[in-house]
């Protein structure tokens, strides 16, 4: 420390030796900000890293850049209007987001939904699941330098988007669920077109698998990288494909069935390694399972007689006083909806428990010890949507 001039701030001088003349070299941790621009994921995330050389010593996910206050907006919207807000937090899973809200409201009302609406909802939920998974199956290799797979993934997405857009009129935010059922009946011939679309995607899905799954570069970048153990998963509440890739055998469609899942053979895909490669495998295999479930739903809908697709509602819909918690197996994991009503036409409180929030918080445990070069591979395999975090 040199003596500063009178009135000046203290000044520190550090002498650093370089080259052959350096006797002792001391390394210092460096603080590195990744973001809030797109680092490698979907949305605006900031990571505050402390790095020691090329390795990450500590990581802190910093969220809130996309916060819209949807949970407070619910409190001044009636039960028809909140659906349009709820389907946007995970923009890849809009139908699943709507579903949790209407299930909670219907439970509070003690309302029984027509059987055709139950099976149609199940079908649309599985188609939406495949759409979500295809996006990550295409974008994850893109983040590792593989350009071609995303074109294949979007080809399959467009095939399914065609039938989803036909039935709902929306490409991303479907707004097709209603309290008591669905907006309107299935268009004539729609089940045939859905069967054809599912068959086409199933036939071409191996193209993506051949491009990526066995690729030696992809395997080298993902196998044994970003390992997440079961204890950490349970501690942070991680769910969905990420948890199942670490051997957590949990899927609400099988374990606490809702909609028509108690009548369907839901196959739960798990792996034990818990690395980036396992997470990709689970997502790929889960997409295949959802295509099979979609076919089963179509077959059941063909057998059902014609009938109503929704319940008639009063002009002003009020939910009885009380509270309930409804949760669903959304594409990215467990989505929970805690609804509190005071008997009015708007919720007193509607709290969302989204899958992505837990999936991104666990990064503080996963990233330390890994190379900075592997950070992108780990982030891409965590399958979160930032809007699903910043509600």
UniProtKB/TrEMBL annotation:
Enzyme class name: translocase
Catalytic activity: a quinone + NADH + 5 H(+)(in) = a quinol + NAD(+) + 4 H(+)(out)
Record keyword Kinase present: no
InterPro entries: NADH_Q_OxRdtase_suD (IPR001135), NADH_UbQ_OxRdtase_49kDa_CS (IPR014029), NDH1_su_D/H (IPR022885), NiFe-Hase_large (IPR029014)
SUPFAM superfamilies the UniProt entry points to: HydB/Nqo4-like (SSF56762)
Predominant subcellular localization, coarse grouping: membrane
PROSITE patterns, A to Z: COMPLEX1_49K (PS00535)
Pfam families per UniProt: Complex1_49kDa (PF00346)
Keywords, sorted A to Z: Cell membrane, Membrane, NAD, Quinone, Translocase, Transport
Enzyme Commission number(s): 7.1.1.-
Protein localization: Cell membrane
Domain named NADH-quinone oxidoreductase subunit D: residues: 144-314, 317-391
Membrane topology: Peripheral membrane protein
UniProt similarity note: Belongs to the complex I 49 kDa subunit family.
Annotated HAMAP family: NDH1_NuoD (MF_01358)
Summary of subunit composition and partner proteins: NDH-1 is composed of 14 different subunits. Subunits NuoB, C, D, E, F, and G constitute the peripheral sector of the complex.
Task of the protein: NDH-1 shuttles electrons from NADH, via FMN and iron-sulfur (Fe-S) centers, to quinones in the respiratory chain. The immediate electron acceptor for the enzyme in this species is believed to be a menaquinone. Couples the redox reaction to proton translocation (for every two electrons transferred, four hydrogen ions are translocated across the cytoplasmic membrane), and thus conserves the redox energy in a proton gradient.
Protein name: NADH-quinone oxidoreductase subunit D
Source organism of this protein record: Sphaerisporangium aureirubrum
